[in-house]
Amino acid sequence: MITYEVTATVRPDLCEAYERYMRERHVPDLLQTGAFAGASFSRSAPGRYRVRYEAHDRAALDRYLALHAPRLRQHLLEQFPEGVELSREEWEVLEAWPVAGAPR
């Protein structure tokens, strides 16, 4: 499995709008591309966010990056032309352990 993570630092006055945009528009749009099995949206501190997308495989992530990422990144930039700093990383999952008792 390949994990694609986007970390955002958001200016305080934009946090509410950013959270709403991510929940209602951006993450659903990414999932609709079919490249990802799931996603999670997290906050570690006020203004510090992470979205973790689980790609089906390397080919799916590569297709997403080539075909969909430019358009979706542009849309985010149009919504937040300033006040949001992003970094992106790709992670190859080497091993995963299910949580005992967790539904599958």
UniProtKB/TrEMBL annotation:
InterPro entries: DUF4286 (IPR025563). It holds the Pfam family DUF4286. It comes from the Bacteria. This is DUF4286 domain-containing protein. It comes from Calidithermus terrae. The lineage of its organism: Bacteria, Thermotogati, Deinococcota, Deinococci, Thermales.
